[in-house]
Write a structure and sequence with these properties.
The protein is α/β, with parallel strands linked by helices. It has one domain: 3-Layer(aba) Sandwich (Rossmann fold). The chain contains eight helices and ten strands. Strands 6-7-8-3-9-10 form a six-stranded mixed sheet, sandwiched between helices. The longest helix has 18 residues. It is globular and about 65 Å long. The N and C termini lie far apart (about 55 Å). Bound molecules: adenosine-5'-diphosphate and magnesium ion. Adenosine-5'-diphosphate binds next to strand 1, strand 2 and helix 1.
Length: about 270
């Protein structure tokens, strides 16, 4: 059973043309942001979503993240048919089935790394008959997620005391703490320099190696080369879906980059 299954997904934005003074006719202009997208991903995949600006990437991300509903088609997530779901189910899916990672980290500033990661557990949506976790169990889980991203020594740091790469690690720990069906990352390294970018791509590769399913939007082909599959959108249509035959190793590239960097600073 696929983790994600999109069938004929359409999203149309209806704009009110009457606000436009130059337009003589009354009525609406329809922007067809997605024109019938079919896509499915199995557990353990690592997929890049690419495409030029305006091609529908954000629209697709919003639908995958259950932040928006399609105008047509069906979306089945981990066996749950979302098209017919109510807003409660949507909230449950967002909290339990999806781990969000954003370009801007979105950490709470006055809150330690540990507390940031505990937050989704605190707001955890429970299934019927599911017990509330104790404070101690929540803390243990959050600590374990931070150790998984290599931040075992930084749990009590505030975001301002962490590098950009470390902040994104906290965000990834937060995304994983509820053991979601997949991670949805939107330009996760957009605010990071080359070294930190390679570190984060290496972490994603490591998590994927452990079986995590990851969907990542990027407009950089060099980053897509660290994933296993690349889908490309154009004008709201999925125009290409390719396996990456030789996935680059981010840890290898990071080691090379560090070496070159050291040589450069020696020479200067
Ligand atoms: N809220 C909205 N209202 C109207 N049109 C929108 C809205 N959001 C996106 N669009 C249009 O839908 C198309 C796809 O946009 P988007 O998904 O943001 O593309 P991308 O993320 O690939 O740049 C664009 O033509 C955009 O102008
Ligand atoms: Mg976008």
């Amino acid at each position: 059973m696929p983790v994600i299954e999109l069938k004929g997904i359409k999203r149309e934005y209806v704009m009110d043309a009457r606000k436009d003074a130059s337009s003589k006719d009354e009525g609406a202009v329809v922007v067809r942001a997605l024109r019938g997208v079919d896509f499915s991903a199995e557990e353990g995949e690592f997929v890049s979503v690419m495409g030029p600006s305006g091609s529908g990437k954000s629209t697709l991300m919003n639908i995958l993240g259950c932040l928006d509903k399609p105008s047509g088609g069906t979306y089945t997530l981990d066996g749950i048919e979302t098209s017919t779901s109510n807003s409660d189910t949507f909230a449950y899916i967002r909290n339990r089935k999806i781990g969000f990672v954003f370009q801007s980290f979105n950490l709470l500033a006055r809150t330690t790394a540990l507390e940031n990661v505990e937050l989704p557990l605190f707001y955890r949506r429970r299934e019927k008959n599911e017990n509330r976790q104790t404070a101690a169990a929540r803390k243990e889980r959050a600590m374990s997620a931070l150790r998984d991203v290599g931040l075992g020594q930084r749990m009590d740091h505030f975001p301002s005391q962490l590098s950009g790469g470390q902040q994104q690690r906290v965000a990834i720990a937060r995304a994983m703490v509820n053991d979601p069906a997949f991670i949805l990352a939107d330009e996760p390294t957009g605010n990071l320099d080359t070294g930190m970018t390679l570190e984060i791509m290496g972490l994603f590769q490591q998590l994927n190696e452990q079986g995590k399913t990851i969907i990542m939007v990027t407009h950089e082909p060099e980053l897509a080369a660290y994933t296993r599959r690349i889908i490309t959108l154009r004008d709201g249509e999925l125009v290409s879906d390719k396996r990456v035959t030789k996935m680059r190793s981010a840890p290898d590239d990071l080691a090379k980059w560090k070496k070159d960097h050291a040589l450069l600073s020696e020479g200067s």
